[in-house]
Design brief:
Elements (H helix, E strand, L loop, with lengths): L5 H18 L6 E6 L5 E6 L12 H13 L7 E7 L3 H9 L4 E6 L24 E3 L4 H17 L1
Parallel strand pairs: 3-4, 4-5
Antiparallel strand pairs: 1-2, 1-3
Helix pairs in contact: 1-4
Length: 156
């Protein structure tokens, strides 16, 4: 991937958030929310389910909450979401409800993904908003941080 490509730049920022999550002993998934009109990152974060004792504190949910709070609105249709792992069904639903314009994810998640795997939330007739989706951006790097994290856990 071209390092000048904005998708690469924003995914790199999401990967940095995943690294911060790993340092906190959270599953290393990171996300950034970008205002497409300005190109500015309006929210960024990583998984915080352990830290917050909250099973819904996925990286995607955290940045959607922050982005909506900043916007003062429940819908943020001028935002794109970059996340290091294919979002699960819960996060896909939140993405749809927030009316996010586009989702860009790194590594696919055949086991727990909810966009291109599993229930494929955006293809369901009950889905009210279907964002554009681009998968596989920096997939190797995004997948490797997860592999390394869980390999280290198995060694303990």
């Amino acid at each position: 991937m071209d390092p000048i490509d904005p998708d690469y730049t924003y995914m790199q920022a999401a990967l940095e958030e995943a690294q911060k999550a790993a340092a906190r002993d959270e599953v290393p998934i990171g996300a950034v929310l970008v205002d497409v009109e300005t190109g500015e990152i309006v929210a960024q974060g990583g998984n915080a389910t352990i830290e917050r004792a909250d099973p819904t504190a996925h990286a995607e949910i955290m940045v959607i909450r922050d982005g909506c709070k900043t916007a003062g609105a429940q819908r943020i249709p001028t935002c794109d979401l970059y996340v290091t792992l294919e979002p699960c069904a819960m996060c896909a639903a939140a993405i749809s409800f927030a009316r996010i314009r586009r989702v860009v994810y790194g590594a696919p998640d055949p086991k727990g993904g909810g966009i291109d795997h599993g229930g494929q939330f955006f293809t369901q007739p009950t889905c009210h908003h279907r964002p554009a989706v681009t998968g596989g951006v920096m997939a190797d790097q995004c997948g490797q941080i997860l592999k390394d994290f869980f390999a280290a856990k198995r060694k303990k």
